[in-house]
Amino acid sequence: MESPTETPRAEADNSYQQLATNDEEEIGEEHMVVHSPDPEAARLTMLNFTAMSVLFSANHGSVVSCLGLATARLGSTGAWQSGILYFTYTASALLGATYVTKRAGSRNALFYGMALYCVYVGCFWFATLAATADLERLLAWTGAGIGGIGAGFLWTSQGAYFGQAAEEHARQLDQPVETSTASFAGVFAFFYLAEEVALRLLSTFLVQTHLASWETIFAIYTAVTVLSVVPVRFLREYSSGDASATESSASIFSQVTVAGRLLISDPKMKYMIGLNASFGFTAAFLSSYVNGEVMPIALNDPSSKYVGVYSSWTAAVAAGSSLIFGKIAPMTGRTPILVGGSVCFFAVCFPFLVQPDPHKYNWWALLFVYTMQGVGRATFEGTLKATFADFFAYEKEGAFANIILQNGLAGAVVTFSLLCDTPSKYCIEYSNGGLHDVLTFVLIAAFSTVVAVAGYLRASSIHRSEQGADAASE
């Protein structure tokens, strides 16, 4: 175990120095020194970041609305579709997203990721129109593979863009970067979650009022994703990337694998795995089991009209909680918020450990489960990402790629695995006829929340030691 007095980040700083040089030169030369605060420039930076948040949230909100309906509307095809999305999303983060972001620049990589997300939603729409089961599977799974690659680009570049905008904002106001990252995290989380609420509720409203068929609803989601992509090109670009064709193969390999190397070289990163994995486990649990299997039985909802209501409630709770956490974080620090989020994720799983039978649940029981997921998610979307921006400021692309890698892999593993052979209290038969080991699913998710708390406390201790060592060397 690493001593808290060591500064392993120094080695990582050296290994990533060459990769960061271009970004630092392009960002730094113009804004390196600010002799006095410039509130007007800071306002414009915040306005640009807000525009990015609105566009990103419309695009991603359509995607997660489809993802929440995948198993409910497409059955086993949808379950496999979600698993493929998680796997390609994870692989993209590990093997290429950081390279694309560094080469193309954070804004351009964001554009590419959002464009590929359009393919996922569009294929979802065409899958609902397919005349045969084979064509439905082909369209759904192809779209998931392409969309997963885009997701890796999207979240890696969003993290880099977030960090670069926060650093510029801090320079313009001559304030600590941590203050700006906390502010920007709250803004992004609010729009991200609020737009998700609206887009998830859209499907329920249109189905309940008989204004549109499911095919029309997915066509609307496709249109939203496409329309949200175009304006991204007009956002501020903080780094244009390095389009040089003279890079060596070693340099390209170094940039492609930066996420994995950061995971290995910086001890803080491995201790943050629990926080990302716990969200991945509980999100997959809700999507594959609660949305697809519990809700239709508990609420007598075979047409999935209430999936949008509960999913929207989760996002609404998360949006409101993110604003509250943004206000109290300067007073309480991030530790109580992140620990509280882990406790909420545990509360999502625990009821199904006690009682896995879907017939035993009602409106209020499910409302509690989705509320706990909403509060936990607020800590993931806002507080945790601000923490990553501060803990790994020297390698933003690699840090945010690790968020994708860790929670995406967690979701993929539990979506594809955990099968069983003999029906029992915890070996549940899904609507597609497959038998799934819900007990192991719940235990893994619950245990990850305990690991999350212990890991974060250790990573935070290492970070404080690094800050102390840096201050002593100045």
Account of the 3D structure:
- With 474 residues, the protein is an all-alpha fold.
- 80% of the residues lie in helices and 1% in strands.
- It has 17 helices and two strands.
- The chain has helices at 9-31, 39-74, 76-94, 97-104, 106-129, 133-173, 177-208, 214-229, 249-256, 258-265, 267-271, 273-298, 307-332, 335-354, 363-391, 396-416, 438-473, and strands at 427-429, 435-437.
- The protein has a two-stranded antiparallel ribbon.
- A hairpin with a 5-residue loop joins strand 1 (427-429) and strand 2.
- The longest helix has 41 residues, at 133-173.
Helix count, per DSSP?
Answer: 17
Please give the radius of gyration in angstroms.
22 Å
Q: How are the strands of the biggest sheet laid out side by side?
A: 1-2
Element pattern in H and E: HHHHHHHHHHHHHHHHEEH
Percentage of residues assigned to helices: over 70%
Note the overall shape.
globular
Task: Give the class from helix and strand content and strand pairing.
Answer: mainly alpha
Strand content range? under 5%
User: Biggest β-sheet: count, sense, barrel?
Assistant: 2 strands, antiparallel
Low-confidence stretches: 1-34
Compute the number of strand runs: 2
Q: Helices, strands, pairings?
A:
Blueprint: H1 9-31, H2 39-74, H3 76-94, H4 97-104, H5 106-129, H6 133-173, H7 177-208, H8 214-229, H9 249-256, H10 258-265, H11 267-271, H12 273-298, H13 307-332, H14 335-354, H15 363-391, H16 396-416, E1 427-429, E2 435-437, H17 438-473
Antiparallel strand pairs: 1-2
Helix pairs in contact: 2-3, 2-5, 2-6, 2-7, 2-8, 2-12, 3-6, 3-16, 4-5, 4-6, 4-9, 5-6, 5-8, 6-7, 6-16, 7-13, 7-15, 10-16, 12-14, 12-15, 12-16, 12-17, 13-15, 14-15, 14-17
